[in-house]
C-alpha cells in the first residue's frame, strides 16, 4: 500500500493537486509561457541571421512544421493522456527498451537546454540597460538566479505554477503586442531589414533557420507532458496545443515585422541576444526600450518556470517506468522533488558553460531527432490504434528530416564543433540507456532465478 502511494506521488506530482488541477486556460498559458519565452527573446536574432529579410516567414514555416508534428502528440494524448506524456508515447510505440528510453531522455534534455537558453536570455536583457550584457560572469549569475527562482515556484506546487503562468502570459502577450504595434506604427514597413534585397542563394540557410523556429514552438510539448494534470484531458490537450500554436504564430509575426522594420539584418545580428530591446530604441525611444526589457524579463521568467514544471514531471515518469537511473543522494522527499533539483542543476550548469547560439543549436538537434522517432513510432506501430492518418505522419517526418539536414549542413560550415557535440551527446544517451536497461534486465533475471 505504501509502495502504491509512493508510485502515485511519483507520477502525478502533488498528491492533493495533481489530478485535473490545470484548466484549459492555465494549460494554454503554460504552453505559450514556454514558447514565447524562448521564441521571441532568445531566437529572433539567430533566425534573422540565417534567413535574412525573409525571417518573419521562418516563423510561419516553423508553425506549419510544428502543427504537423503536433498531430502525433494530439492523437496519442487523446488516447492516453498522462503526466510525462512523451515518454508514454515512446514506450507504447517502441516498448520499454533503448529507443523509447533514449528518445524520452533526449526530449527531457532538450527541455533542460531550453531552460538554460531562456535563463541566459533573461540575464542578457536584465544587464542590457547597464551595458553589461557582455559580462560572462554576471550573465551566468543572472541565469542561475532565475533557475533557482523557478525551482522555488515549482516546489510550491501545481497551482502556484499554473497561476503564475497565467498572470505572466497575459502580461507578456499584451506587452509584446503593444510593443510590436507601436514599433510598426513608428517605423512603417519600408525601412530596416525589409528594405534589403532578398536573394535565393540563401535557400538552405532559410530552411536551416526553421530549426530555430521549431524550437520557438516546441513549448507545445509542455502541454503533452502535463496531459494527466489537465482538466478533461481527452478533450482539452489537443485544443490547448492548437490554441497555443495559434497565439504564438500571431505574436511572433507581429514582433518579427516590428524588429525587421526598425533594424537592418546586420543590426539584428549584432544585437541578436537582445534584438527586441535594440529594436525598441530607434522606434520608441528610451521608454520603449525599458518597457521591452521589463516584458522580456516577465516572458523569460515564466518560460523557465513552466519548462521546469514539465521536465521534472517527465523525468519523474521516466524514473517510475524504470527507464532512467535514479539516486536520491541522501535527499528526503518524493522522486518528483529530487527531479526538480536535478533539472535545475543541469540547466544551471549549461547556462554557465554555453553561449546562447550553441545552447539553441544543441537543443534543436536533440529535439528534431526525438520528434522524428515519435512520428516514426506512431506511424509504424500505433496509427491504427489511435486513428492517425499515415500521410500526415509521413509528411511531418519528412519535414523534420529536411530541416535537420539543412541545419546540420549550415552548422558544419559555421560551427562544426556543435555538430560533433550533438552527435556525441545523442550517442552517449543511447549507449548509456542501453547499458542501464541491460543491467536492469540482468538484475531482474538474477532475482527471478534466486526466487
From TrEMBL:
<feature type="transmembrane region" description="Helical">
    <location>
        <begin position="418"/>
        <end position="437"/>
    </location>
</feature>
<feature type="transmembrane region" description="Helical">
    <location>
        <begin position="166"/>
        <end position="186"/>
    </location>
</feature>
<feature type="transmembrane region" description="Helical">
    <location>
        <begin position="198"/>
        <end position="220"/>
    </location>
</feature>
<feature type="transmembrane region" description="Helical">
    <location>
        <begin position="333"/>
        <end position="353"/>
    </location>
</feature>
<feature type="transmembrane region" description="Helical">
    <location>
        <begin position="54"/>
        <end position="74"/>
    </location>
</feature>
<feature type="transmembrane region" description="Helical">
    <location>
        <begin position="289"/>
        <end position="312"/>
    </location>
</feature>
<feature type="transmembrane region" description="Helical">
    <location>
        <begin position="241"/>
        <end position="265"/>
    </location>
</feature>
<dbReference type="GO" id="GO:0005886">
    <property type="term" value="C:plasma membrane"/>
</dbReference>
<feature type="transmembrane region" description="Helical">
    <location>
        <begin position="94"/>
        <end position="113"/>
    </location>
</feature>
<keyword id="KW-1133">Transmembrane helix</keyword>
<feature type="transmembrane region" description="Helical">
    <location>
        <begin position="137"/>
        <end position="154"/>
    </location>
</feature>
<feature type="transmembrane region" description="Helical">
    <location>
        <begin position="27"/>
        <end position="48"/>
    </location>
</feature>
<protein>
    <submittedName>
        <fullName>Amino acid permease</fullName>
    </submittedName>
</protein>
<feature type="transmembrane region" description="Helical">
    <location>
        <begin position="391"/>
        <end position="412"/>
    </location>
</feature>
<keyword id="KW-0812">Transmembrane</keyword>
<dbReference type="Pfam" id="PF13520">
    <property type="entry name" value="AA_permease_2"/>
</dbReference>
<keyword id="KW-0472">Membrane</keyword>
<keyword id="KW-1003">Cell membrane</keyword>
<feature type="transmembrane region" description="Helical">
    <location>
        <begin position="359"/>
        <end position="379"/>
    </location>
</feature>
<dbReference type="InterPro" id="IPR002293">
    <property type="entry name" value="AA/rel_permease1"/>
</dbReference>
<dbReference type="GO" id="GO:0022857">
    <property type="term" value="F:transmembrane transporter activity"/>
</dbReference>
<dbReference type="InterPro" id="IPR050367">
    <property type="entry name" value="APC_superfamily"/>
</dbReference>
